[in-house]
Design goal:
Strand content: 5-15%
Largest sheet: 6 strands, parallel
Distance between the termini: 16 Å
Number of strands: 6
Keywords: Hydrolase
Radius of gyration: 16 Å
Low-confidence stretches: none
Strand order of the largest sheet: 3-2-1-4-5-6
Shape: globular
Mean pLDDT: 96
Number of helices: 10
GO molecular function, one term: hydrolase activity
Order of helices and strands: EHHHHHEHEHEHEHEH
EC number: 3.-.-.-
Organism: Streptomyces cinerochromogenes
InterPro entries: HAD-like_hydrolase_sf, HAD-like_sf, HAD-SF_hydro_IA, HAD_sf, PGP-like_dom2
């Protein structure tokens, strides 16, 4: 039976989390909101609407949501031509593809942003499909992005592993019933990833690749 390796992208395969922190912080600042960067960092990985709600609360002026998201997109878009892949990202995906895994991306990115991320990874030959924000109604930590990735791969949860870097990733994967692998390269502590459902934790894609045989993807 086929098996699927499902990957988050931001902070997992591409070193973008801190770019998101700075650009979201600036978007909030421009709109008159003083949101600490450490709080933004912990929220990275949520979809735009959920991130704004998480940081500003349910009593916020929701008419600002779209403007905040657009400001973040414009600020972050300045980096599209130089997004850095994390060490070993492309090599890991190609190795898994060669080992018979169906590699699927599950990301809140879409459109031009997703295109820039895929160019940074430079492993399109190994990626079978992508479950983007445009494909689901609810983003992580809801299980829908991971479940949609499994549908695209055509495999059950029992034959899949999800790799991510945030607690939102681990919760989404756990709720979808898949084994979860956490990476530290997004800046979230090991203990937080494990508490959220990570079965194993590695430094970055290169570390996972180097220790692949003993990992859930071995």
């Amino acid at each position: 039976m086929d098996r699927a390796a499902v990957f988050d992208v931001d902070g997992t395969l591409v070193d973008t989390n801190h770019l998101h922190v700075v650009t979201w912080w600036e978007a909030f600042r421009q709109a008159g909101h003083d949101v600490p960067m450490h709080a933004v960092h912990r929220a990275v990985g949520l979809g735009s609407t959920d991130l704004v709600a998480h940081l500003l609360g349910d009593d916020r002026d929701r008419d600002q949501d779209a403007r905040l998201s657009a400001a973040h997109t414009a600020l972050y878009g300045q980096y599209f031509d130089r997004l850095p892949a994390l060490p070993g990202a492309g090599e890991l995906l190609r190795r898994l593809h060669g080992d018979g895994w169906t590699v699927v991306l599950a990301t809140s990115a879409s459109g031009a942003e997703l295109g820039a991320l895929r160019r940074a990874i430079d492993a399109d030959d190994a990626i079978a499909a992508t479950a983007s924000a445009d494909d689901v109604r609810q983003g992580k930590p809801a299980p829908e992005p991971v479940e949609h990735a499994l549908e695209l791969a055509g495999v059950p949860a029992s034959r899949a592993v999800f790799v991510g870097d945030t607690v939102w990733d681990m919760r989404a994967g756990s709720r979808a019933g898949v084994r979860c692998v956490g990476l530290l390269c997004g800046g979230i502590p090991r203990a937080d990833l494990e508490e959220a459902g990570a079965e194993a934790v590695y430094a970055d894609p290169a570390d996972l690749l180097a220790r692949l045989a003993g990992s859930p993807l071995g």
